Amino acid sequence: MKKIESIRRFICGYEEYRLSELYEGGSFRTEKLPINVFMAEHRKFGNILINTGCSNMMKKNPISYSKYLSKHKVSFDKRDMITEHLARDHMDPLCIKKVLLTHANAECCGALPLLPKYELLSTAQLLCVLKFDNDSDHILKSTLPPDNIPMKAFNVFKGTSVLKKYFKFVYDVLGDGSILAADISGASNSMVGYFITEENIFFCADAMTDERCFGDSIKPTDKLLLMQYDSEDYMNVRNTLKNIHTENPDIRFIFSHSKDF
């Protein structure tokens, strides 16, 4: 009997990219890519969100939101918020028992204040970023969870996994090996990737724009590298993911802006 009974995707907004600005030889046309949120239904722990997508909480400070939009060409409306998706499926937000975050970005945390009761899980490093390292991002402050929401850091995974060949530390998200986590920092501070073991799905957040980046002909521009939190770590993670993709073709990679699921 599977521990993860189902995985669903919700599109919680969109972000526009011009690939020619990101990759050498990329298209000059603008692409509108989804902001993906995933919900895993765990047999024991209930519904678990990976990220939350955008919400109107991001617009609380119009000045900060305008600055955010100057860097992130994000668009969303009320219908795109995770709480609206749940309502259309006749699900109460209370059904969300745990939230996993990939990184401290408003698109990941945007709807946290709209969820009434849950446990927030991530690496100790990312939880510290959320708590103490958000002074320069006022839009992020408005999307952080209430103080009464419990936060818990992952323990190190002690079992066997293909990920251990590629990452120094692999974490056991729920304590039962059903979801593993690895540090894929570079694009953002303390970014986390999530590997759903029974399905061989690796959700790698913003480590790449989408699956097309596995192609050898797609090389980042200098502009893209300057946009990263740490360009050297960013390239190291890209190369690691490309190695995993090449050596383990049965693993399916999904990114924050993947079009298909």
Count every beta strand, where a strand is a DSSP E run of 2 or more residues.
13
Radius of gyration over alpha carbons?
A: 17 Å
Going by CATH, the homologous superfamily would be Ribonuclease Z/Hydroxyacylglutathione hydrolase-like
CATH architecture: 4-Layer Sandwich
**How far is it from the N-terminal to the C-terminal residue, by CA?**
23 Å
Inertia-based shape: globular
| Overall SS class | alpha/beta
- What does the largest sheet look like? 7 strands, mixed
Return residue spans where pLDDT drops below 50 for at least 5 consecutive residues.
none
Lateral arrangement of strands in the main beta sheet: 4-1-2-3-5-6-7
Q: How helix-rich are the residues, as a percent range?
A: 10-25%
Mean pLDDT: 91
What's the structural domain tally?
1
What series of H and E elements makes up the topology? EHEEHEHEHEHHEEEEEEHHE
The tally of helices reads: 8
Residues in β-strands, percent: 25-35%
What is the third-level CATH name, the topology? Answer: Metallo-beta-lactamase, Chain A
Q: For the record, what CATH class applies? A: Alpha Beta
Which SSEs are present, and which pair or pack?
Blueprint: E1 4-18, H1 19-22, E2 30-42, E3 46-50, H2 62-71, E4 74-75, H3 82-88, E5 96-100, H4 106-109, E6 119-122, H5 124-132, H6 138-141, E7 151-153, E8 155-156, E9 170-172, E10 179-183, E11 192-196, E12 201-203, H7 222-226, H8 231-247, E13 252-254
